[in-house]
């Protein structure tokens, strides 16, 4: 019997990155289909480590992926650290990147529904100089920013937002602020919201 294919979910290290390339539900499906799934412990991931373990994953220490055996498939979301030597080169690994799946010069791996949903509410701004961090990403709500400026003007700016544990929390806050903005705007709501240069950020 051939050994199981091993998938290794790495812990994301980019500031404020709480997303996960795999969910516990998907891990269960993979395990049921014969995959072995190793999940690095993570203090930032939106899912608890125990949720993955309950679905059949094997928990391993955070940051272990650069030393994973060559036959393991490492799964992650954000770009790898710019180091010399590049982490995968140390073990002779191969990088598979969805960003490079192209047809006729255009990327074919578009974002999913909830990327569009979040994109309709969220706009990312970057502050490049802090005493302790550079390129510090903060998410601003596009609709909430519209409502905020109607209430407060452009100064002070909308306070920075982090992540929401549940979609309902985002919906509730956006609706409340947009309602207040509409009251300041004669009851008129925004009619057009463009997200992304080609309008391909999901169908949210």
Gist of the model:
Helices cover 28% and strands 15% of the residues.
Give a description of the structure:
This protein has 204 residues and is α/β, with parallel strands linked by helices. It is built from six helices and eight strands; from the N terminus they run βαβαββαββαββαα. It has helices at residues 24-32, 49-54, 87-90, 113-121, 142-152, 167-184; strands at residues 6-9, 36-40, 58-60, 73-75, 102-103, 106-107, 122-127, 136-141. A four-stranded parallel beta sheet has the order 3-2-1-4. Strands 5-6 form a two-stranded antiparallel ribbon. The chain is elongated and about 65 Å long.
Summarize the main sheet: 4 strands, parallel
Radius of gyration: 20 Å
Structural class: alpha/beta
Considering DSSP H and I runs of 4 or more, what fraction of the residues is helical?
A: 25-40%
The outline comes out as elongated
With strands numbered from the N-terminus, the spatial order across the biggest sheet is 3-2-1-4
C-alpha end-to-end distance = 44 Å
Mean pLDDT: 76
By DSSP (H or I, 4+ residues per run), the number of helices equals: 6
Low-confidence stretches: 123-140
Q: What is the string of SSEs from the N terminus onward?
A: EHEHEEHEEHEEHH
Q: Count of DSSP E strands?
A: 8
Oligomer: single chain
Topology:
Blueprint: E1 6-9, H1 24-32, E2 36-40, H2 49-54, E3 58-60, E4 73-75, H3 87-90, E5 102-103, E6 106-107, H4 113-121, E7 122-127, E8 136-141, H5 142-152, H6 167-184
Parallel strand pairs: 1-2, 1-4, 2-3
Antiparallel strand pairs: 5-6, 7-8
């Amino acid at each position: 019997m051939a050994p199981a294919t091993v998938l290794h979910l790495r812990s994301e290290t980019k500031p404020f990155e709480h997303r996960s390339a795999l969910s516990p539900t998907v891990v269960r499906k993979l395990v049921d289909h014969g995959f072995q799934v190793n999940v690095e412990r993570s203090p930032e991931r939106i899912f608890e480590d125990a949720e993955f373990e309950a679905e059949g994953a094997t928990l391993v220490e955070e940051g272990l992926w650069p030393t994973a055996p060559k036959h393991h498939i490492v799964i992650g979301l954000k770009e790898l650290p710019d180091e010399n030597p590049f982490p995968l080169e140390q073990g002779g690994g191969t990088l598979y990147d969805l960003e490079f799946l192209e047809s006729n010069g255009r990327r074919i791996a578009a974002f999913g529904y909830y990327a569009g949903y979040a994109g309709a509410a969220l706009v990312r701004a970057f502050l490049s100089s802090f005493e302790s961090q550079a390129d510090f990403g903060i998410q601003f709500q596009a609709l909430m920013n519209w409502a905020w400026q109607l209430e407060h003007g452009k100064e002070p700016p909308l306070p920075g937002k982090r992540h929401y544990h549940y979609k309902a929390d985002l919906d509730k806050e956006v609706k409340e602020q947009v309602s207040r903005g509409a009251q300041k705007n004669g009851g008129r709501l925004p009619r057009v919201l463009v997200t992304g240069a080609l309008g391909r950020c999901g169908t949210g």
